[in-house]
Protein 1
Amino acid sequence: MSSSVIDFIATEARFGARNYEPIGVVLSRGEGVWVWDTQGNRYLDCLSAYSAVSQGHCHPKILAAMVEQAHRLTLTSRAFHNDQLALFYEEIAALTGSHKVLPMNSGAEAVESAIKSVRKWGYEVKGVPDGQAEIIVCANNFHGRTLGVVGFSTDPETRGHFGPFAPGFKVIPFGDAAALAEAINPNTVAFLVEPIQGEAGVVIPPAGYFTEVRELCTANNVMLVLDEIQTGLGRTGKLLAEQHEGIEADVTLLGKALSGGFYPVSAVLSNNDVLGTLRPGQHGSTFGGNPLACAVARAAMRVLVEEGMIENAARQGARFLEGLKDIRANTIREVRGRGLMLAVELHPEPGRARRYCEALQAKGILAKDTHEHTIRIAPPLVITSDQVDWALERFAAILTQDFS
Ligand SMILES: *Cc1c(COP(=O)(O)O)cnc(C)c1O
């Protein structure tokens, strides 16, 4: 490593809160599926900023929309109207079939906003006694890092020593519809769940789970809130992961790829009166719905559709999954995925996945370990067959070695 690289890493460590443990690479440029470090080494990005860069790094059309809008108007606050928000609403509603939209910035803010909205709906529409609303969530969930959200996490690292936490959440196992049926009571306002648990290691629920979940929620007047912040916008090979299950959520949360990685943009979408309970002054965000965010998100959604990225995610995801399944290696416990949301689970051993990710880095692939023994693979949705094959060669070369 050159001295400058050591300086970047050492300076981060000296001044920064150490709430991350990055792989030892300092990136300075990106284009499509590729990123380059400060020394000019090229890597295939198999993380895509946790699926925020689904459209590929520095997509030229999103970039152009951002620069053009930045020259005209960036922030008005919602105290005034701007000429981008209405168009963003129209386009995201048309794309997703939603009726109401609440624009926010980060994913966690969208989750918080959904929690506030379904509680209000519970009190004002469903008739739950004030202060009694319950929301059901799943074990091993990941919905962000705010205090409200980590309070119902089941991961000791995520919640440890951050309490006390807000009451009103009930945790059930993921993929278990009978547990949901048992947990619902008259005060239940919502079931908040990821279609596929991403941070937990790309955990796909059993077939038919969401059909039962949908029926239970409908029968009990419980809002089904799908956190599609990671699974949404084509990542799993469909626009929304709910489409694999043939269901529709009452509330859908989007973030990450909603801006193609240029800017924090998130949204709460609903197809009923949940968002209708919010009145002026009851919820807001200085940056939420700003014209720069709206222009960026509009371009990000447009290229996703126009350039066939969702279909490509399905096609290349199938190719990638098949290729990974063909790798014969003692270290692999399971390979799974849907679309370009893939994971290789290794036989458990502390730090094993991290060592494989470091070996992959040396071969020109950036992937991220999760939970000690799972390698998550989520390249931009613009990846080509040749690039998938290029990656598979390297995965095969590394996974068949022993880094224990
Ligand atoms: C990333 C993520 C979030 C949080 O998004 P931030 O923008 O980091 O706040 C919430 N839910 C899911 C499923 C995510 O993957």
Protein 2
Amino acid sequence: MKKETLCVHSGTYHDPATRGVNSPIYTSSSYEYLDRQECPYPRYFNTPNQEVVVKKMCALEHSDAGLLFSSGMAAISTAVLALAGAGDHVILLDDLYGGTHAFATGEFQRLGIEYSFVETDATAIFKAQKKNTRVIVIESPTNPLLKVLDIRKVADFARKEGIVTIIDNTFATPIHQNPILMGIDIVVHSGTKYLGGHSDICCGFVLTSSEKAARIRSMAHCLGGSLNAMTASLLERSIKTLAIRVKRQTENAEKIAVFLKDHPAIEKVNYPGLPDFHGHEIAKTQMAGFGAMLSFEVDVKRVRPEIFVRRLALIRPAVSLGGVESLICSPALTSHVKMSAAERKRVGITDSLFRLSVGIEDAQDLEDDLDQALR
Ligand SMILES: *Cc1c(COP(=O)(O)O)cnc(C)c1O
């Protein structure tokens, strides 16, 4: 079945007692244990509401198994800690999500885990391999410059070398990109973004083979980080509209990318869907659509960035992304504020760069708002 259908129907638990069309919410944290093998418990990641939403995501990401977490970072940190320990080496992209970056730089050394940060390029990953490399952590497209990595190349290399690959698929969503079909071992998501889709819940996923899920599950039992039934149910409801939301958001982003590219007050637009964008050709081979995240630089000779953002009337300056409403942020002041100015300059995150998470509003209304603020 197609993604739209899977979003609506897969995983739903049909309660024979009421025959309601939606999975009921089971609030119990305690379940009877007599005459059964496995007893549900929230921190065992196996309650009915956790399981229905995991089933839905397994269908969308083509994975055998998965775990639902209380945040994206809980999913990422639990997966990494389950697979890498003292004496192991981990390769990570240098423009990974800030929280993942901080997890490596802040915690790995104390745990005896070696690590290398490399640029978003398959060859750079190959070159960073050491004898003790166990895990590679990647993202594509990246935040906020939307760099595209050749996922198949990295997956093929890692398979041959016996290295486990983890990809953060938050930006692309399972609607546009299915890394497991390209040979990646583990997909993680911040469900706080597109999966939740309404900027009102925090959650995360690990999706992988049954064997790797069992290993990650035992680490998850120790670290906790499970999600409650109420939020799991809200998430299940949200994912029903994931495909139509993401498709509409992507259509809007494609229009806005072209509009901004042609605008006299704009220096540069980063969007994988633009034919002359450096990652466009690879993106075409691994994404079904180019997504709804883009970034752009205003021309500082015409526009003061700090005034521009205050003049927007519809698009709100706020952190996070992936919701139905369009949000804009300045990475230099938000996600990358802890990076030194010199380091930001090196990686291309200028003070005139803005990241736009395009929502489901009318594209013309969004363009009009950007245009009046730029003027
Ligand atoms: C937000 C985000 C995360 C972290 O997710 P939380 O739900 O905030 O813990 C990880 N990766 C990416 C790409 C994100 O955008």
